[in-house]
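Re: the 421-residue chain
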Amino acid sequence: MAKEHYDLIVIGAGLSEQIAATLLAGQGYRVLSFPSTFQTEQQTLACCPALHKLLKSLKGEDLLRESTDSVQLVTDDIRLQLGGPLSLVDELRREFPDHHDSMLALLDRLDAWGRKLSLLLTSPAPGSSLLVLRLLALYRRQLSNNLPARRLQQPILRILTTLGAPKPQNALSHLLSGLCLVTPEKLSVAEAALKWHITTRPRNLLIAELSQLLTERYAATGGQSIPLDELAAIKQTGKRPDGVSLLNGKVLNARQFLVGPLPEHIELDTALASTQAKPPCKPRRWILSGLPLQRPPMLDRQVILAGKQTLSLTWDQDSLSPGQAMLEAVRPADHTILETETVLQQLSSLLPFTSFALTETDYPTSERVMHNRFWPRGGLPRPAASNILLCHAAHLLPSLGVNADAILGQAAAGSMQKRLG
C-alpha cells in the first residue's frame, strides 16, 4: 500500500496542538491532525496578550466579549472581590486601609511582568532544549526591567515580604496560591505574575467558539484530519518516529511530529516517553453535590477560602448539573495528609446551614498537575527527539489552565516552523 507523506503529523491534538496545526497549515505546510475530544461546554478563556495575538492572526477578534467572571478571597476577616462592581483599588482600600498602596504597587508589577511573559513565551521556541535556550535568555534579561538576577524564578514568598506586615502578606499568599493551586513555597514569581495577569483580564471568549474558528481556518488552508480512534500505532526507527499506522493498514509518514495527550492504546518509545513532564503530585479535588440550585448571592462563582489549608471552590457552569461545585486543595508543602474533616470544617464557615455531599475524585490524566521545580523551566514545547515535539499544556504550564494552550500552541508552531524550514 502506498504511503502518504506530510510535513507534520499532530497526534492527540488538544487545543494547543490544534492552534499549532492551524497556524502551520496557514503557512502552507502539509499538516495531518488526529484530534482529541476535549470538553468545552461554556468554559471561557481570558484574553491575555498571547490569545489576542492569536485572534489577530486568525481574524477572530470579534469573538471577544466583556468578562463577567469574578473571584473572591475569603478569610476570617477579609472578603476581597476581583472583577466585581468595585475596582481593585477600592477593594484593597476597604480591606487593607493601611497597606493598600503597597499591595496595589506589587500587584501592578506582577501584572506588567505577566503581560510581558505571556508574549515572550509564545515566541518561536528552540528546536533543541539547551535548558530552553538558557530560559529564553533569562527571560529577556528579566523582562528588561532591571530585575535582580533570577528574580522571576524565586518563590513568591520573597517578594511578598516587601509588604512589611503579616496581614497583606498572608492575604496575597493565599490568593495567588489558590489561583495557581501551588503551595507558596513552590510558587515562583513568574508563575504568579502570569496567573495574576490572566485572571484580571477584562475580556474573554468561549473556548467552543475558538475551537470552531480554528477548525474552520484549518480546513480552509488545506489541513487534513483523521479521528484519533482510527490510529493504530506510532512507527519508529530507533528513537525517531517516522510514521503512523491506521487500523485499516494504511501507513502515513511525516518529517516532524507534534504529540499531545495520547489515548491509552498508543504508546511512545520508553526513551521518548521519559522526556514527558511527569510531576509528582496533583491538587486534591472533591465534588460538592446537593447544594442549593442557586449559588448564594454573596459568593462569586470562584471562591478562594483561606484557613489551615487554601481551598478553591468553583461552582459548576453546566446547566445540566445544578447544585454542584468543585473543590480543590493545594497539597501541603510538607506532604502531610489533608483530612476530609478539616476540609468540612473550613467549608462550614463559608456555607453555614447548608447540607451537601463531599466526594473525593481523581484528576483525569489530561488535567493539570503540580510540578516540583520552580516554573517555567519546562514551560515550552519539549523536544523529545530531532523530529518530535511534546506539547501538553496541562503538564507543561499546569496552573495557567486553558490559557496555557494559547501560549504553548503558538510556541510549538514557531518551533516547528524553524524545524521544517
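Confidence is low (pLDDT under 50) at residues 126-134, 365-379.
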